[in-house]
Amino acid sequence: MKITGIETIICHARMRNWVFIKIITDQPGLYGWGEATLEWHTRSVVGAIEDIKQLLIGEDPRRIEYLWQMMYRQHFWHGNGIVRATAISGIDIALWDIAGKIYNVPCHQLWGGRVRDYIRLYCHLGGGRMEEFYETDPADAERFAELAQQAVEDGFTAFKSMAVPETMPLEGLRPVKYAAACVEAMRKAVGDDIDIMVDCHARPSPRMGMLFAEALEPYGLYFFEEPCWPENIDDIALIQRAIKTPVATGERLIGIHAIRDLLEKRGASVLQPDITHCGGLSVALKIAAMAEAYNVSIAPHNPQGPVSTAASIELGLSAPSYIICESVHNDVPWRSDIVNESFEVHKKGRLVYPSNRPGLGVDINEKEAKKHPFQQELLQRSFYKDGAVGDW
Fold first, then answer.
1. Residue 388 within a domain
2. What are the pLDDT digits (tens) for 135-183?
3. Which one is catalytic: 201, 277, 329, 346?
4. 78 assigned to active site
5. How far is CA 354 from the centre of its chain?
6. Which of 21, 46, 118, 135 has its CA 20 to 30 A from that of 361?
7. Are residues 164 and 63 both part of a single domain?
8. Domain for residue 375, yes or no?
9. Contact in structure between 90 and 111 (CB atoms under 8 Å)
10. How many structural domains is the chain composed of?
11. Same domain, residue pair 251 and 199
């Protein structure tokens, strides 16, 4: 059995271009789907896939770890850069899809079988008016409350928002009070039975991240995400030790070594590897095992397309440390035209129940996907009031 081709299909989905990978074999009808979506770097990722695939053509797709090692190590720079890591991740996901199809079982059965009956989903409400910085306006808190109520009406028992505004490295109370007002409004709107997460998007400096974390402590967050740059692992660990709220991070960390350093410093209660960036399912499985060893939770970052979601669900069905899956349900109205998904979503509670379809349980409608060709994503620009460059 050999790999005979690796193709990419780009599908523009509003905020991002989905990059689907199709690995074709010499066995009739046997192929696998992966995803390598990376906002603002679509052409770079497609180019990286073209560079990597010369290593894989003619190889046995069943040798997944061997092929991963080749992709990662068979060049001087290793696979640590985000573009190359995303390309490797997408190919790796497709190889696992093929493996499930070869043995006629869902991927989670390849990893020891189900450890749970369903996966819980959460949605993302979005953020405040970034273009107006953090000008405190009661209408913002009201808007967050309305969005929170809508999420509950849509069946979700958990949601995330970006209620923490952009700030300069050091500021006074205004942005902190703004964030607290927005989170307080959401909590009052949905009550204590709904789990609320707040994503800082790694915008704050470590000191501002600490101030936000302390201010939001009274509202019982499910987790507090990326309170400062992920490069500042020591500072993330300081924030985690200073508050009771669980800190989450990891979406921008690539590979097992960065996660190892985070765990050794006790820097997070929740790990958020992105399966399309961290190294694929092969690395995500290792991260899940590391999380179990350190008794921390897994909640993968997953704002991408349908293959990424399928991979996250399959991982969650087999990983004891997994707690919840990020879900995108209102990105484009034609999402269901692009993908045939096998799992069942119960609207009440937004719970995903598995199927017995082999592999990842998804198939991409190539004809429909090609109706939405590549478009250049809108590059985000963020500046502080004094004109200095900020973090989006």
1. no
2. 556 678 999 999 999 999 999 999 999 999 989 999 999 999 999 999 9
3. 201
4. no
5. 20
6. 46
7. no
8. no
9. no
10. 2
11. yes
Look at residues 331, 368, 324, 371 and name the one whose alpha carbon lies nearest to residue 349.
Answer: 324
Catalytic residue, from 108, 124, 277, 301: name it.
301
Share of the chain above pLDDT 90, in %: 85
pLDDT for the residue numbered 292: 97
- The structure tokens 């007002």 sit at 181
CA–CA separation, 34 and 107 (whole Å): 13
Tell me the average pLDDT of the chain: 93
Q: Verify that 80 and 124 share a domain, yes or no.
A: no
301 is catalytic: yes
Q: Is residue 77 part of a domain?
A: yes
- The pLDDT value recorded for residue 138 is 65
Q: How confident is the model at residue 130 (pLDDT cuts 50, 70, 90)?
A: very low
- Residue 7 belongs to domain spanning: 3-105
List Cβ neighbours of 161 (8 Å cut-off, separation of 6 or more).
124, 125, 126, 127, 144, 147, 148, 182, 183, 186, 196, 197, 198, 199
Same domain, 99 and 149: no
- At 299-328, the pLDDT tens digits run 999 999 999 999 999 999 999 999 999 998
What pLDDT score does 136 carry? 53
Q: Is residue 198 part of a domain?
A: yes
Q: Residues 317, 203: one domain?
A: yes
H-helix or E-strand containing 187?
helix 174-190
CA distances from 17 to 14, 20, 263, 333 (A): 7, 9, 32, 15
- In this structure, are 223 and 335 located in the same domain? yes
Tokens of 300: 């993968």
Give yes or no: residues 235 and 357 share one domain: yes
Phi, psi of 349 (to 5 degrees): 95, -10
Whichever domain contains 58, its CATH number is 3.30.390.10
From the centroid of its chain, how far is CA 86? 12
3-state secondary structure of 138: helix
Look at residue 291 and tell me whether its pLDDT is greater than 50.
yes
Q: Are 32 and 96 in contact (CB under 8 A)?
A: yes
Q: Where is the domain boundary, 84, 105, 126? A: 105
H-run or E-run covering 127: strand 119-127
User: CB of 107 within 8 A of CB of 359?
Assistant: yes
Q: State the Cα–Cα distance between residues 139 and 160, nearest whole angstrom.
A: 19
Dmax over CA atoms of the chain, in Å, equals 64
